[in-house]
Design goal:
- This protein is α+β, with helices and mostly antiparallel strands.
- The chain is built from eight helices and five strands, in the order αααβαβαββααβα.
- It has helices at about 5-15, 20-25, 35-45, 65-80, 90-100, 115-120, 125-135, 195-200, and strands at about 50-55, 85-90, 100-105, 110-115, 190-195.
- The chain has a three-stranded antiparallel sheet. Strands 1-2 form a two-stranded parallel sheet.
- The protein is extended, with a radius of gyration of 26 Å.
- The structure holds iron/sulfur cluster.
Length: about 250
């Protein structure tokens, strides 16, 4: 490797905090941890000095403790290199702390957009509210509480439903309107929601019955200590019965 190129690589490895640099120059990917691999991927992405990076689920496979380090690194790289970063994720809990603006997409269309804090504090679209409700709750007191997730499945992008694409799953759907006419992105051009219900405050909402959902769980657990224990079965085990004790 030419000296100039090697110096450039060393600078980048230092920028993404892979220390000591000489230890990483000759390593293979399988010799790196998940966090180190992500740092290397970021270094590789900025080596050609792009104006924009598309980061698709960059931290979803990492431990929670490493996620925040990688997001902080991406934020610093963004400021130092004056980059635009499009951060794609299903995890609203991380996008809230990383992004300035959030675009919520469902069925291939933007259904809500706005400043990150405002959108999280005051979500207007039912799908945004469902995403926020799905954030993991570390409180052990809530371990046995089921979240109210929308029934049904995401729509086919080849044959999307008529009207609002979310209407087959929406508990607020207005029969005859939401299933007939696609709503526009209401609100101002920088913040708005593609939801008829949110744009017509107080409007009557005769609900369209949601489809039956096999994944919707309504069962409740018995209290701790009353769960019957199942005997461990020895499938295919050839262990003989214990020999009778000698007389
Ligand atoms: S437009 Fe209607 S179906 Fe779509 S999200 Fe709003 S209330 Fe629900």
């Amino acid at each position: 490797m030419a000296d100039e190129a090697l110096l450039h690589v060393k600078d980048l490895l230092e920028d993404v905090k892979l220390f000591p640099v000489e230890d990483f120059l000759n390593k293979f990917p399988h010799q790196l941890s998940g966090g180190q691999q992500q740092r290397l991927v970021i270094a590789r992405a900025i080596i050609l000095e792009p104006q924009m990076i598309v980061a698709n689920e960059p931290v979803s496979m990492l431990d929670a403790s490493v996620r925040i380090e990688i997001l902080q690194l991406l934020g610093r790289i963004q400021r130092e290199y004056n980059l635009g970063i499009i951060y794609i994720t299903h995890d609203v809990s991380t996008v809230r702390y990383f992004s300035q603006r959030i675009f919520v997409m469902y069925g291939g269309t933007v259904v809500e957009q706005g400043e990150a804090n405002e959108l999280v504090k005051n979500p207007k679209h039912p799908y945004t509210r469902a995403l926020l409700a799905a954030i993991s709750d570390p409180d052990a007191q809530n371990a046995r509480r089921f979240k109210d997730v929308p029934p049904g499945e995401p729509p086919s992008l080849l044959h999307p439903p008529a009207g609002c694409r979310f209407h087959p799953r929406c508990v607020e759907a207005i029969a005859g309107r939401c299933d007939a006419e696609a709503p526009g992105l209401s609100g101002c051009s920088r913040a708005g929601s593609r939801c008829r219900g949110s744009s017509v405050p107080g409007s009557p909402r005769p609900a369209i019955p949601p489809p039956p959902c096999r994944r919707r769980r309504t069962a409740t657990f018995p209290p701790r200590g009353q769960i019957p224990l199942r005997r461990r079965e020895t499938r295919g085990c050839a262990r003989p019965d214990p020999a009778p004790a000698p007389p």
